Give the backbone structure.
Amino acid sequence: MSDISRRDFARLAGVGGVGTWASSAWAPFAIAQGAAKVVIVGGGAGGATAAHYVKKGAPELDVTLIEANPIYSSSFFSNLYIGGFRTLESLNHNYGGLRRLGVKVVHDLATDVDAAKRTVKTRGGRTYAYDRLVLSPGIDIKYDSIPGYSREASRLMPHGYTTAAAGKRQIRDQLVAMRDGGTVVMVTPNNPYRCPPGPYERACMIAHYLKTKKPKSKLVILDPKKAFSKQAVITEAFDKYYKSIIELNLTTEIDDYSVVSVDPKTKEIVTKAGKKVKADVANVIPQQRAGEIAVKAGCTEGDWCPINPDNFASKKVQNVYVLGDATVAAEMPKSAFSANSQAKVVAADILADLAKKERFPARYRNTCWSLLAPDDDVKVGANYAPKDGKLDPSGSFVSQRGETAEVRKQNFAESVAWYDSIISEMFAKPAPTAGKKKG
Ligand SMILES: Cc1cc2nc3c(=O)[nH]c(=O)nc-3n(C[C@H](O)[C@H](O)[C@H](O)COP(=O)(O)OP(=O)(O)OC[C@H]3O[C@@H](n4cnc5c(N)ncnc54)[C@H](O)[C@@H]3O)c2cc1C
């Protein structure tokens, strides 16, 4: 087995973002401890990518992926399903490709981590020993962050903000069942939360559905923030396409649109500013925190997990890496693109560590696309490198108001290619070809 070169490492560790590892003819690491065990909890954007590249880099390693669900229903692109641009089935992916690669995929809930003994326990009663542990559990919803909201209430007022397919389906089904002339209310969260532009892309997708199917209806957005991601281009789209439909209530010095109560029975929502809205359909997105297993492992500080920006090793627990939405990664937004990029760095770090090879400087990347209307898509992104204990952004870009239809259409094509690419990287399978667009 040949050693990895500096040039290869830079290429593999996320410099080029999505697609670099999958396409490279990449020389495996020679791992001294052939039987070293790597356990990964969470088979989403971060964890599945990490499992793929650790196993691919050193096939002799014992790699176990513990994932609660047999099917991963991606949150990314789920707004397109809500808007009618994609099927729910096209968001669903299984773990067959990772299994074929030799990853031991276990469908169980990890319930505890013993950092001293280096073991993970599961609800099914199994214990898994590890030499290196990777946690990528995503987010848990803080149901109590909104008075009146709860797990039970979320069935009537779905958040649709986790990988569970049910919440997304409920939002779509409730929209379809709603009368023309009804009121949809979106309650958006305060920073930090998963996918900063996500609620506003969703607003566009809901408004597109209303405009084309139920044009007498309204969408009221209640926002505790004063500003949001890609605001200039998103509000341009609100005006251009959905002026008669969307009412955006952003918090100002005078009015605070933080929600102070929701009633799932009457669907009445009240804000601090005293605004009361009765919803026919309510999409309530509460505050979030790192997935529970990160808390159990002792990796959290407050709601999130601090990490070393050089390699996403936990700052709190040895031999444990945390990546994706569960982390505080300074400016890096909580996105699937970020998690995938971080996972490649983590995989390379584990392989270099176990092979006792030199580590090379990490590079990360993020791009987030948002669909505003058919063929009108905007993006924001940046590169990141560790500097002075933080992640330092460079080369940032964001779509501008007044761009041509051609540019926006090209953005949409890029986003579809990205979706196929990240799915292929996560699940070690050829890029999907079916189920993209409805009709
Ligand atoms: C509406 C919406 C739109 C979005 N759009 C985009 C987009 O366009 N682009 C983009 O880049 N990002 C987007 N995102 C964000 C993206 O979905 C997340 O940032 C990404 O999924 C984070 O990856 P992760 O690995 O941290 O978590 P996840 O992908 O959520 O994966 C976590 C996995 O861990 C499993 N798990 C958790 N705890 C345990 C446990 N104890 N035991 C076993 N398994 C466990 C879960 O079942 C889950 O499969 C969007 C999000 C939303 C909600």
